[in-house]
């Protein structure tokens, strides 16, 4: 065998090995964490670090009538619930609110990944542990009954059949970003102030030193103008937590999706050593119902997938709605209406399905929200979101 042929073989091996590693971080992005593979024996040892959670499917409500393409050939669409925990002790257990809820739609036909943020304050039927109706903010579902109750809340209110999830905390996301040497993000003057404020707590939770971003002079940055800053892990996480600017929680959800896209960009150009360090450090901070076999099976296709469209749910809503039954009288995000929003959600997630009709359950929940709030189809806002951040 010639030297030239040996070199070609060696280069091809390195390319294959590196592609497998890159998959890991792409799925890490999807799970807002990190799942990797570059050789079956090796990935087995790495995946053992992940906290496994075997769901009790008798406690997960799904709607069997949902039109959703799935088959063993990995075509059609798969949905995974991604959860960022609001936990000051970095716990991933029930009892903590889900600060971030994202539905990742893996479309095997178009080879794209679509993301939908569920706004944490959305007033929905989150149910009780015994299955009774309970209308309050959607982020209370995980706190009350863990992953099973959160998935039930999503499935029943949105006519979905999500059976897989992954949860991560502030520290895991911060560590991932630091291993990738930070992210370049455009900030307004107002956002810099909020990043610095949030970063005091984020740094404490993540166990890192607090680093303040120096506020530029108003002559350099003022009003809606932006300037690019290189953010470390806790600063980037703090940016994703901001909810006190125009758009409030809606703009916050867009920031989270922007950070996910930035992580994917950096991961694709990272070397093997960096990706390996991420797996060793971050995997123990992940909790998921995905099995090793499911991760491996999905990974073989995700290597060539791209980030697709992104959105927030509910599409049409009222912010700060004082709903009669709202928990402790707090302001909520009111879907106007739930039924029409669910139709829009299905059009977004499953564009090839043209004959979807909301289930009787969704119509029942929607009617209840209308009765309690007084906002029906005749009061759907013409424009719901304010200040959506361009993706990319």
Structural write-up:
With 392 residues, the protein is of the alpha/beta class. Helix content is 41%, strand content 17%. The chain contains eleven helices and 13 strands. The longest helix has 28 residues, at 3-30. The protein is globular.
Write the layout of secondary structure elements.
Blueprint: H1 3-30, H2 40-47, E1 51-52, E2 77-85, E3 98-107, E4 112-118, E5 123-125, E6 135-137, H3 140-158, E7 165-168, H4 170-179, E8 183-187, H5 189-206, E9 227-231, H6 233-241, H7 248-268, H8 272-282, E10 286-288, H9 292-302, E11 306-313, E12 317-321, E13 332-335, H10 338-349, H11 360-373
Parallel strand pairs: 1-10, 2-7, 4-11
Antiparallel strand pairs: 2-3, 3-4, 5-6, 7-10, 8-9, 12-13
Rg is: 21 Å
**Which residue ranges are poorly predicted, with pLDDT under 50 across at least 5 consecutive positions?**
1-9, 11-41, 67-74, 386-392
Average pLDDT for all residues? 76
The percent of residues in helical segments reads 40-55%
* DSSP strand content: 15-25%
Element string (H = helix, E = strand)? HHEEEEEEHEHEHEHHHEHEEEHH
Largest sheet: 7 strands, mixed
In total, the number of strands is 13
Number of helices: 11
Overall, the morphology is globular
By helix and strand content, what is the structural category?
A: alpha/beta
**Strand order in the sheet with the most strands:** 1-10-7-2-3-4-11
**Oligomer category:** single chain
